[in-house]
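Folds abound. Consider this:
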Amino acid sequence: MQEISATVPDWSRERVRKFYDPSRQLLRQLRGYQRSRTHKGWLRPLRTGWYVFWYRVWSIVTGAEIDLNAPIGGGLLLPHPNGIVIHPEAVIGPNCLIFQQVTLGTGGRIPGCPKLGGHVDVGAGAKILGGVTVGDHAKIGANAVVLDHVPEGATAVGVPARLVLARPVGSEQTKTWSAV
């Protein structure tokens, strides 16, 4: 089994496979908009408008609320993008996996917006709130409410989220993290 990198984006995960591929189409328009903002010339407004139009279409189809300027690392997977809400200042690392009804936003114990490391898996309905940092290769369980930092390789579950078994990256040993 191939290990998924926490630093090098796997762009093939975002490749549109057919026309009706809502989550990948949404990401395609978002990436296109971000690229078009860096171009100069008289075609820039036309190109930018094109991406905004299709971004809005796919946002309606998916029911996702992701800002056009959100800092999202490459290789993001949104298998079921319905109801995903990502704050414009939340940072998502490369090769993350986010399921339906996930919220990355403000309002937790720590002021600010969440920052997800590379290859973080976020289960359906999870809420990651405040200026928390989720380490590389971490997993957030379904319906968890994360209000504290999650270390690299850890798994957080529950309301409020507590840390359970964690496997340090590159190690076969497991250990229990104490709750934060």
The chain has two helices and 15 strands. Helices lie at 22-36, 44-62. The first helix runs from residue 22 to 36. The first strand starts at residue 65 and ends at 66.
